[in-house]
Protein 1
Amino acid sequence: MAVMAYNDVMRQFRHRILPPNHPYTLFVKRVAKRLVQVSGLENLKWEFYVIDSPERNAFVLPGGKVFVFTGILPIVRNEDGMAAVLGHEIAHQLARHSAEKVSVTKIIFVLMLTLQLFGVDTSLLFNQFTLNYLMMSPFSRKCETEADVIGLQLMAQACFEPRESLEVWKRMSAIDKHEPPQFLSTHPSHKNRVERLAQEMPNALQKREDSDCSSEMQVFADMFRDARVRW
């Protein structure tokens, strides 16, 4: 399934994937390298791609295949902002959210079969609205919130500035002024994301302070932070 999804994405965007030596690709990989080093998943065959498309999005496929759309670059603005986005995607892999989603789907399927054996008309209980908005959407929002929190810890441990994650979501909120109500969405609202990240910020700042950030890495990070990539 993971291989099929990867092949589908590569086929769909084959003419839009930027080359490995493109500045945007190098920028993403540079940030990703530091996050992967603290993720505990260094042995996973990570691959990072940048898709030249205006969507303000990024996603990860099982197996560590991460795709970033150029449309999100003006929002992240710098390495710390990109670390917030990539940390979130790496956190999905770390928390095995894809596997959890498959498990939830299987549980729902088994429950439907069991109820049908007892003569219950499951078409009323498990219609598209129920599955999407009362079951899968809350689960998806839970996974997204968990990825936000884990991603915040990852970026702090990798010596990025965790407070930049708040700015990323504030900028996203300013652009997406007509986002759907949270209960209709698979993601938490931007407002709720900012509030939750703010709650977790003291822990993230402490983790950054406690992390073994060598002077060389700090100089490296500050150098690129000062020379921000602008789009």
Protein 2
Amino acid sequence: MDRKKLDKLWADIAAARRSPQKAGDLEALAKLAGRKEVSGGNHPMWVSAFPQHRAFPIERHGGNPDLSPHVRKVVLNHLEADAAAWEEVLEAENENEEGA
């Protein structure tokens, strides 16, 4: 993850909060946040690169309708937590580069 990708992730999350989202849209954001899709259960789980962050499903139902506002909110909250964690990683990398 670099600064450009992280800035795009923050902008995309903010835009996603303002409009209805389909499962594919949120899956693309999850990939951008560094999450990996793992099959299991009724729906695939999206696992974070950060072990302290919980995995979550993004439900896909026939016809690919818009997700409910609650599901959208929960997924975007998780992705914001991932983005904040990436911010900390980038800041630590910058401090190490400046200190070296």
Protein 3
Amino acid sequence: MGPLRVLSASGQLGYGLPAAALSQGFARRPHLVGADMGSVDPGPGYLGSGTMGPSPEGAKADLAAVLRGARALDIPMLIGSAGTGGARPHLEATAGMLRAIAHEQGLHFRLATIAADLPRETVLKAVRAGRVRPLGGMPELSETEVRQANVIVGQMGTEAFQRALAAGADVILAGRACDTAIFAALPGLIGYPMGPLMHMAKIVECASLCCVPGGRDAMLATLDGDGFVLESMNPARAATPLSVAAHSLYEQDNPFEVFEPEGCLRVDAARYEALDARRARVSGATWTPARQLTLKIEGTTRLGERCLLLCATADPRVIANLDSILPAVERNVQGMLPADLGAYSLHVRRYGIDGVLDWPTPPKAPPREVFLLLEFVAPSMAAAKTVAAMTKQYLLHHGFPGRLSTGGNLAFPLTPPEVEAGTAYRFNIYHVMDVAELPPLFPVSLEDL
């Protein structure tokens, strides 16, 4: 079996592509090009709202650059987790961009779209049968949470991509998908050994992030049977044995096992060697097919409308008394709110003290400045803004023992300092579901452009 060249165009499409590296990647005549387009890393907002992380203009520009290169070489182009969240609205919006690019640039190809939205009843049946397990500290999934979810997606593996390839698709746009599936589907369909090809896919899905220094440039992987060679398309970046081995652990709680819908990749016996100063070869990974097919499922539910209050202080007395000031102000505000306002939540982040991390101990020396981000979530934006505005005034003029300045406790970076932040969501489904078969869950639709 000859070498198979796999080009990873980007670690997350839509945020700009280093053009020189992408051009160099296509000049190496890859057999396929792929890119991930989504993640849960940005939180539940994009999945819940059906909106994209990147701007539509940025997403379309990146799609156009990759599509032009793929069609010029007549090679498959595979995109996973369309539009950030990978649900139906994201898939449709991204497919619309591909259609527009094809029309504008006179490109012709067979487009496959693969939906990842799961029927609510399918998940409910799995919950009732005890076939759903929590991930990442989530509680057991209840039928109530499933019913409250405004969207539920499953993270497809290689099987759905392979069905689309077998149907003659030139361009595959998938909803929520495993990052590895984008790059593993074609080699697996051809018959390359699953261990090395899945390990390759695990590393290249982030493009040149596995290099020194890491970056967003296109990455070329060459499968050669029992291993693969990695090379960044930016000559300033080097894939070293150490940097590649380190990236094998990326986003994994187990350093030796990577679980996918169709099986488990083991990298404890993997070998990493330098071919030269910029290229590394990897071999030795193994693959065990799953006895039980599984899916990671993700869902969100609406919390309410969110308003932010942005303010800061450099008053050392205010900073020293924040632990008592903030709850006192909240109590005062609760006593002044209209009775019919409804329930709301307040979350305070104190940047400079514990805004990023809930430290187990206070700082050894008080910070010179503290930035406060107060997040209000209420049934309506009007209610959230009412609480935010009232909190602003009471926090600004709150009196406390030792106070010297009566002109105000706060500085505001913006006017008005209350910022509408849209609808708030939370992940209420982040679980693994046992399934009997995969094809019915991820329908493939074909169209010729």
